[in-house]
Every structure is written in structure tokens, then in C-alpha cells.
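step 4 of 6: structure.
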Amino acid sequence: MTDHDGTRTRNGDATGAEALVAEPNWLKDKAVRFLDSDVYFSFKRSPVTIVAFSLVMLLVLGALLGPLIAPQNPHDPAQLNLMDGFTPPFSANQFTGSFYLLGTDDQGRDIFSAILYGLRISLFVGVVSVLFAGVLGVTLGLVSGYFGGWIDTLIMRIADIQLTFPSILIAMLIFGIARGLVPVEMRNDAALYILILSIGLSEWVQFARTVRGATLVEREKEYVQAARLIGLGRIPIMVRHVLPNVMGPVLVIGTIGLALAIIAEATLSFLGVGAPPTTPSLGTLIRVGQDFLFSGEWWIILFPSLTLLVLALSVNLLGDWLRDVLNPKLR
Amino acid sequence: MLAFIIRRVGQAVAVLFTVGLVAFCIFRFMGDPVENLLGQEATQADREALIERLGLDDPIPVQYVRFVGNALQGEFGISYRLGRPVSELIAERLPATLELAMVSALFALVFGVLFGVYTGIRRDGVLANIVMSVSLVGVSLPTFLIGILLIWIFAVELGWLPSFGRGDTVAITENWDSVLLTASGLKSLILPGITLGLYQMTLIMRLVRSEMLEVLRTDYIRFARARGLRRQAIYFGHALKNTLVPVITVTGLQLGSIIAFAIITETVFQWPGVGLLFVNAIFFVDIPVMAAYLLLVGTVFVTINLIVDLLYFAIDPRLRFDAPGKGA
């Protein structure tokens, strides 16, 4: 608590070296400081947030360890037994006696394993597209706000036009265009990257507008004037001084954006214009499962849908909580 | 007043121009139209003839002007996949989408206002709280999951309603096959209509609720109560009336979203509208259809936004006072 970065002065180099040597202490300091922070205090007092956080962690862990804990690799035909097809959940197959926790699909694919593998794709696409949208949006917002002038007008005009249309429509359009530019034989392999590109490009506007607004306020402040006075260039000022001070809301937008990106990915994949059948995400699994709803095999669609729902809802709740904690005006 | 209208119309034209440019770039530079229209056996002479006929060797600005000119006349070229004029395909399917969108918007408006008024009056009521909680879950659910859930309950388990298609249609005009006049058509409209309108319904409901809460606190409502007016008269005649300006605006703005989100609903319910056409066009990289859909939706959005803005201007006098100061 006592040693915060702001008090370090010119002879801070020595303290820095000491801190490196005494690493455990430094870590402990960080931990103590975190446990004492407003964020942790608010986290402790909100059961909903704790549950949401645990669920997200559980799903992330499941996705990361997927190949290790999944009973089978659902995309390796050699591991599938057709006789196990349509095994209902929580019970043994009537012919082979094999047990599958969440049942199997028509080809004897274990739904639980398919969900773990699908979760990997959904989370990967979601996280990377938000990162992409974030980097792009923050950069453009910073440039727009700091430079102003025609470049600001241009960027904000594009943002305005894009905001006129729902982001899912933009994502679909970009997906279609990018798909058209990729050679036919590469379309399945490139699908995930096209997906990331289209979702990222459809969501940068929120980041850019927020960062631009914050930059407009920051650039008039004294520390920026001081930095300008000692002859620092525009880019170093933007990156080293303005950027850290406008990043606060970005975390909130990023978290809520993650929920949106996961839903957007699932929607595109469900429509058949997202993750290909060779690397199915949760949305693809739901699309496939829809066919079996009518013949009574409800588990093929129910469990992937529930997973998607829990994931999107939990991330959303976390985002809402972060917004309330980090926004001093609401307190 | 005039300056505002001119500026606003100018903006709309600029946006449309951009959308048109994007559509033109897709149309002209993605893939090779000549390869796509001619088969493998085409000779060099065929190629040149087609390039000549399509005007692909003209300067790009000339081609753009021609593209816009054709689009204004409803001419968008020929679908690569289906080999038929895009305008024909769209004309065939537009009625289905418009009917679905209108029914959804109506559903959203009627039930949104009803629930909004109810939850506004009975703020602490059990039923009102249930409606509010359910609406929160409804907003968090992706549209396609709502559709699947409805299909599961009402089509598969209960068997009350059809799960796909439009049912029987009646030709109203040459191009307009309507489902609004047959029993099976109306039945098949229910599930997609609810799926598509649910999000907008919750939006309107929450808006009406918060506006109602605000209005019910004002003095004129207290006076109306003191005067002994009947409750219905107070709630619907006085309170609701004053919440309607933002509601109309939001409904108008959401109309565009409804048409866009129809893509998802149409896929879930295999509803043969333009949305389904667009999804298939993306999957098969059917460029003329993509470009035409983009132009169509772009025009719809820009027009709706323009009308709503102008309406707002007409309804809310405060905007009129600001206009001269900000002129041009």
C-alpha cells in the first residue's frame, strides 16, 4: 500500500533493482494491494459476480484443457463408433453399453467432447476479434482525438456510417467480401481468420468513439502540455502519456464486447457463414443439432446451446459489474 | 428549418453514396464477372463480346455512374448462382420479409406498450417483476436460440404451430403472395414474428416503463388524480400519451434493425425472404445478390433514419430553436 508507483522519484532505479531481487515480496505487495482494492471489495460483496466469474473461469479452463479432459477427439473419425450413435445423455447405449455423459450425435460423437472443442473455437474467435477490434479502435480513437482535423472527420464519419447499420449485418457483409477474395480451396482453412476479421471490423467503433472522447479531454490537460513543452513528439505523447489515461473504459467495453463477439460468432456460424463443419464452434454445433430436434434427439442441440448461453450471460454480467465498479459517477 | 432539412438530406445522400460505392466495388472488383457468367468452354471472342456488352472496358467512373443508374431503375445484374436477374429474385422474396417485419413490429409495439404501461403502474407487483426478469433473459439470449426454443416448445413438443415455411399464400398482386389471408399462413407467421419482435418488444417495454414512471410523478397526473378522473383515463389518456414521442422514434429506428435481423429469423424458420437469399448469397459468394441486398438495406436504413429525424424535428419544438445557431 505504501509503495505506489507515483511516489518513485529519480533514484527509483535502485528501488526497482531491489524489488527485482526480492521478487516474492514484490508479488506479495501486489497481492496485498489487490486484496485491499475497491475492485476486490466490490467483487466480494456481489454473489452474482462471483458466480459469473467462476462460470467463466470454468469454461475457459475447460476450453484450455479440452484435449486433455475430453473422453475422445470428436473430429477424429477413427475414435467414433457408429454403433454408439444417438446415445441419450446420462445413460448407457442400449447396444454397446458405452456411457456418454451428455449423449452422442448421429455418428456416435460424444457431445461433451464436441462442446469442449467447440468452446475452444468460440472463445478463440471471440477473444481474438475483441483484441483486434480493441487495438484498431483504440489506435483510431487516439489518432482521431489527438490529431483532430480532417483525419478526425474521416474516421468519425466512417464510424457514424457504420453505426447506422447493426453490427451483425456489417460482420456478415465483411465475411462475404473476404470469403469472395479468398481462393475457393482455401475457404475452409481461412474461415476462422475471416470470421475474426469481420467481427473485429464490425466492433471497433465503440472503442474508437470512447477513446476519442477521453483523448479530447486528456490532451488539454497540463501534463500533456508539459510533455509538449519539453519537446516530446506527438507519437510518444500519445502512446506514453495519453494512452494510459484513456484505457479505463476500454476494459469495460472489451468485456461487454467479448460477450457480443461470442454471440456474433455463434450467430454467423449458426447461419452457416462462420466456422466451417471441420472446426465447429458452439454455433455450428447448434446449427447441426437443429436437424435432430424434430426426431426427438434434443440433447444434441440443448447442451451446446446451454453452454453458449451460460458463457455469453456470465461474460455480460462481468462486464456490467466492471462498468459499475470502474465508473465513479454511478457510485 | 430549411437549413436543417437540407443538411440532413445531404447527410443521407452522402451515406447512400458511400454505400453505393461499397456495393459497386463488391460488384465490380470481387471475382471476375466474365468468368462467372460464361462457362468453361467460352472462347476469347465470347469473352470480349461480353466485356463489350457489360461495358467492363469503360473507365471506372463511367461504370460507377452506370451502376448507380441501373440500381435506381431496380436493375442489379444477374445472380451468378441462380442465373436469373437479381431484381426478379428480390421482388419475389421481398413481400415475405416485409410481411414478417411488419407483423413483428406490430407485435413489438402493441405488447411493448401494454407491458410497459403495466410494469410502470405496478412497479412492485409480482407479475410486473416477473415480466421484467423474463425480459432481461430475453435480451441476453441470441435471436436464433429464442427461435429454436419456440420451435421446440410449440412445434415439436406441443405441435400447435408449424416450424418452417410460410404456409398457404394468396396472390394479392402479381408479385405479392400474402400469408395474411390464410389460416395456415397466419399460423406460420406467429413463431417467426415473435422471435423477430421479442428484442424490440423488450426495448419498447423498458422505454415505456421508465417514461411512465417519470410521467406518473409529475404534477399534472397528481392533479388529474385529485380531480377524480378514472384510472384508465389517467394512465392511457394522460400519462401514456406523453410517453409516445420517444416510443415512436425508437420503433421507427428499430424497423431497420428488424429487417436486418430478419436474416437470422428467416434462416431459423426457413422463411423464404430476402434475408435467406442474402445468407445463401454469402455462402455461395453470389456477388450481384450481395451488392443488391446491401443497396436495398442501405436505402431502407438511411430512409428510415431520415424520416425519424425529420419527424422528431417536427414533433419537438426545442430542436427548431437550436437549428439556426448550428446552421450549415
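step 5 of 6: annotate
 - Residues 86 and 289 of chain B are 6 Å apart (CA to CA).
 - Strands of chain B lie at 170-171, 177-178.
step 6 of 6: archive
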